[in-house]
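Appendix B, Record 12. Input sequence as logged:
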Amino acid sequence: MIHDAQLIKQGAEAKVYLAPFCQRQTIIKERFAKAYRHPTLDKKLTSRRVVQEARCLTRCQKAFIDTPTVYMVDVDQSLIYMEYIEGFSVRDYLVTTEGGLPVSQSRLAKEIGQRLGLMHNIDVVHGDLTTSNLLMRQESQTVVLIDFGLSYVSNLIEDKAVDLYVLERAFSSTHPNTEVMFAQILEAYGESGKASKQILKKLEDGNI
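Logged structural output:
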């Protein structure tokens, strides 16, 4: 049990807590055991996923891509301690009808596209790109990529195209009338990625 922890989210793979750590509010992500797997195999697979997620986050940080900073990794307990980001999700931003947030959709789209292009430049595939996994910092209103639980490293065009396809499906299913915004995301992505033209061609062909 994590001391003074508040459970804020539970998914199929992990629990996410908010808890004090080193005199600051911190996100602690705990991957839990799968009862249907052999305990030894489960421990090995869970440890591998914890390490892989932390490495992808650190890889992004070193490339100056805005992701939560990793403070500590406890492989034995399957825990990642990382930066708590005050802000709101792009999903909430797009579905809200009140408040008039000081960010235009075109600026937001450009920033998302640039972030994804830089991420794919260093061969990190997110694996679960949704508007819930794109945050906007409260103060700067800049975009942060979060939840790298399914991330991995790959230089394959197909893998990066699938990443974009997942985001495209998230936009079309959750945010109607955002076709222009998603086109702007792809335009910015095309300008920032090394192999972006090939990746976008693969996405357009739909053969993924």
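Residues 39-62 form the longest helix (24 residues).
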